[in-house]
């Protein structure tokens, strides 16, 4: 079990069900999704949503077993928010 020192901030722009035309991406959150959710909330402008990706989702999209890593599916209302997120996430994970 993973314990966090501080809870994530309130998600003010997060909604439970995104519209069909929102852009989505599958994200390897490693072992802890809170830093990703916090960054999205603090740094992007539009509404967004997320769900946990199933093992089958990860295998279907990436053709690899997630093992014990945690994957998220993020949905963004604004395309530029996806672009900004991917730029940050790639730099943060060292794959830029």
Can you put this structure into words, describing what you see?
The protein contains 3 helices and 3 strands, in the order E-H-E-H-E-H. The chain has helices spanning 34-43, 55-62, 79-93, and strands spanning 23-28, 48-52, 71-76. The longest helix is centred in the last third of the chain and has 15 residues, at 79-93. The chain has one domain. The protein has a 3-stranded antiparallel β-sheet. It is globular. It is α+β, with helices and mostly antiparallel strands.
Instruction: Tell the overall outline.
Output: globular
Order of helices and strands: EHEHEH
Q: Write down the overall mean pLDDT.
A: 85
Helix coverage percent: 25-40%
Instruction: Count the beta strands.
Output: 3
Q: Going across the major beta sheet, what is the strand order?
A: 1-3-2
Count of helical segments?
3
Give the gist of this structure.
The protein is of the alpha+beta class and about 100 residues long.
Give keywords:
96 residues; alpha+beta; single chain; 3 helices; three-stranded antiparallel sheet
Topology (SSEs and partners):
Blueprint lengths: L22 E6 L5 H10 L4 E5 L2 H8 L8 E6 L2 H15 L3
Antiparallel strand pairs: 1-3, 2-3
